[in-house]
Structure formats: C-alpha cells, structure tokens
Amino acid sequence: MEEDERLEVATMQGMDTPSPHDKGSTYPRRAGLRAWSPAVLLILFFACLLEVLYLVIVALAPLPLLHLSNTPLAAAWPLTLALSQIFFPGAWAVAANPPIATTWLYQALLTLILAAIVAIYTLAIWSMYHWRNTLHRAAFPWLLLLLGVTAVFCLTLLFQPALFSDDVFTYMFSGRLLAFYHADPLSNAPIQFPLDPYIRWVVSGRFTTNFYGPLWLYISAGLVSMSNVPIVTLLLFKGLAIVAHLVNCILVWAILTSLAPGHRLLGTLLYAWNPLTIIELAGSGHSEGLLLSILLLAMLLYVQRKGLWREIAVLILLGVAISLNLVVLLIAPLFTWFMVRSERNTSRAFRGFCWRTIVGQGLVIPLFLPLWRGPTTFFSITSAIDLTNFSHSIVGLLEVPNGMALWFCRAIVTFSAGYAANDRRGWCITSLYHLHLCSDLFSSLWQSAGCSNKPRCRPRDAPARL
After folding, report:
1. Are 283 and 73 in contact (CB under 8 A)?
2. What's the N-to-C CA distance of the chain in angstroms?
3. Torsion angle (degrees, nearest 10) of CA 186, 191, 194, 200
4. In this predicted structure, what is the pLDDT of residue 168?
5. Checking phi first, is residue 422 left (phi over 0); if not, alpha (psi -120 to 50) or beta?
6. Residues with Cβ within 8 Å of residue 254, at least 6 apart in sequence
7. Fewer Cβ in 10 A, N or C end of the chain?
8. CA-CA distance, 51 to 45, in Å (whole number)?
9. CA separation (Å) from 129 to 266, 270, 382?
10. Mean pLDDT, the chain, integer
11. How far is residue 231's CA from residue 159's CA, in Å, rounded to a whole number?
12. Residue from 97, 101, 90, 100 nearest 59 by CA
C-alpha cells in the first residue's frame, strides 16, 4: 500500500515537472491557455469596436462637407461610397448649398469618432497592462493575432475614398517626373506640368519641389512605372505603407524580445494599434512607414551587439534612412555619438564618431549624384525646408541655429559659383544674392524674436513647406 502511494506521488511530481524540451519554450501549458482566454476575448472585443469606428471614418471621409482630399477611388469604384450614402444621405442631399450648422455637425461627428478611437485604443493598452502578470510570457500566436487584427484595420482604410492628406499624390507626381518626364523632382514643381492627369489630386504640394530623399524618389518612380492607372498607383503606394506597418510590428516584437520579453505584447500592441499610425500609413499612404522599417531594423541589429560588422550594418541602414527622408539627419549624428559613448578616451571617441559618420551618412552622396545639379539642387532643398513650421515643437529649438547654418552654407555655394564664373556678371549676381540672403537671415531672426508666436495662415493653394 505504501509503495503504491509513493509511486502515485512520484507520478504526480513527474507530471508537474516540465520536460527539458519545454523549458525553453514560450508556449504556455494548458492552464496558461485557460488563463489567457479572458484576455483574448477582451482584445477581440476592443478590435471589433475599433473596426466599427474605422468603418464610420470610411463613411464620413467622402462627405463634401468635410473637404478632405479626393481620390480616384470614388469615381472608379462607386461602391466605396455605399456606406456614406446609406448612413449619411442628408449630407449628400445638401452638399450643393449646406447650412453652416450642418457643416459643423459632421465636423464634430468626425472629431468625436477620432476621440473614441483614441479612447478605445487607450483602454486596450490599459487592459493588456492589467493582464501583464498573466501575459508576461506571451507566445508567437499573440503576434499572429495582433498582425491579423491590424491587417483588418489597414485593409478597411485601404479603400478610403477621401484622405486626410494628399501627400501620397505628391509622391506619385514626383515619381512621374522622374520616370515619364525625365525631369528633376528636386528642381521642378508639379504646377509646371498642368496637363498631367495626376495634377488634379495634388493640392498642397502643387507649387513646391520635392523635398524627400533620393531613395524615396527612385522607389516612387518604380511604383508609378508599374501602372499608368491612377487608382492602381494609389493602391500600390498605400499597399507598400501597409506592408511596412506590418513588418514594423514584427520588428518591434523582435526588439522587445531582446530587451524586455515580458513587455513585448504590450509594446507591440502600443505601436500596431496606434490610431495615428494606422490612419496615416494605411489611410493616407505616407512614406514614413518604410522609414520606420529601416530605423527599426537598425535598432534590432544594434541591440543584438554581435561585432563590428553588425555596427557597420547599422550605420549603413542609417544612411539608407537619410536617403529616404532628410529629417533623419536630425537624429543620425546623435545616434552615432550614442554608439561611441562608452569610449573614455576623448580623441578615440571623436575618431570613432568621424569614421562612423563617413560610413553611414556617406551613402547619401552616391544616391544624390544622379539628381545633383549643383547650387540649383542645394537651393531647392534648403528652400523647401521651413523650420518655422516646427516653432511649437522640440525641433523649433533648432530654428535659429539651423537657419544661420543654412544661410552660411548657401553663402559659400553662391560665393563659389561667382568665383567659378570669373566675370563681372557672375560677381554682380552673387552680390545681389548675398543681399537677398542677408534679408532672409534678418527676417528669420526677427520672426524668431517676436513674430513667431503670431498665428500663421496659408491659403489652400499656396506652396506647402516641410
């Protein structure tokens, strides 16, 4: 009898002890699955609420009373307007001569929907934080669940008939300038090609030259070369943004697996369901999704810390990110210095910073060479960058020093151009341009000193600047 009891106890102990195969596994046991069931149901409940609200945005977006950016989707596929015409028939009936009260009503409704999306997103984050002790070993199926739900959100906004921003059409037009017209997007504005069929959808960037990086110009040219149909081209750009967003979710999961495995579910959810990210990437097709993919891949390689070649790969990826969007120039030197922060010898740290900067940011030069036209290209890029638009952000602190630096660089370029001309006409033009630069510098300092706090207004058809 005693031997039977000992055998039963030993058997129960063997069942409670995990096998060596299960020790490294992140998959929960059967009890863990039962503990996760309420969390799964809760996250699916929040996902359904968000999906309903995104459908309401799709229904509200094409209303003429809201004056959002039109797309070729509404004309080519009238089915995309079905939700709007079913749920808001009154708005379409008074579209020709709407009363002011009706206009404010739909604008307030859109604002409430966006606020509700943010509130539900916050509740979902808080709920997952509340379940953090149970989900601290969240397994790969959780990532698949997040990717599936996020893909549903993105596909819903993929067919949004009106957008909150028309930047995607600016990308398309810049690609057409390079692919079809063989013109330089850094020196030519869309308004110079009034007969192009895409010009009707370019509003905010109609009068300005391209201010994005050369690599994004090449990608845009490749995408517009795949099809000459506007609706197909639009879906290609938005599809690329959606794929980039889903890849970013995987990269965030991988980074947190290395840094904080217990928080990878919460951190991935924090990014994947972010309303601003979903609306701007899946809805408006912004290029920043691909930019984030490059930066997150660089961060993933950096946190692994497996030798010099990984570090060089990180620097190359930073150069690729700069080639996509020049705004990375604001953080690339800081990140490079962060990489050498542990070096106690100041001279060695400075040398390490210099060669890392050359390796990483030197990649931008060969990508810019096919588009470089000398001082003309430089002036086009610096003229498109207006830091006064960031006067109420952290970047606004760099308004005065960066304005003076740009002024100094432009002065050197014009001086060199006049010296190379070696004639009176060249020197006269250079001198006049120096006077213009001085007036620009005085104007920027004056605005920064006292006028930057005044509200600025810009007509809808005026040139938009970064």
Report:
1. no
2. 84
3. 100
4. 92
5. left
6. 300
7. N
8. 10
9. 7, 11, 45
10. 76
11. 10
12. 90
Confidence of residue 447 (pLDDT cuts 50, 70, 90): very low
11-15, 289-293, 398-402, 437-441: range with highest mean pLDDT:
289-293
Per-residue tokens: 107: 């604008």
- Mean pLDDT over 114-127 rounds to 94
Bridge partners of residue 69, in order along the sequence: 163
State pLDDT tens for residues 41-54.
889 999 999 999 99
Q: Which two tokens stand for residue 346?
A: 């100041």
Distance CA 338, CA 353 (A): 9
**pLDDT per residue over 285-328, tens digit each?**
999 999 999 999 999 998 887 777 888 888 899 989 988 888 88
Q: What is the pLDDT of residue 460?
A: 37
Give the pLDDT of residue 213.
84
Percentage above 70 pLDDT, the chain: 68
Helix axes 399-421, 424-446, angle to 10 degrees: 170
Write the pLDDT tens digit of every residue in 335-350. 888 888 877 888 888 8
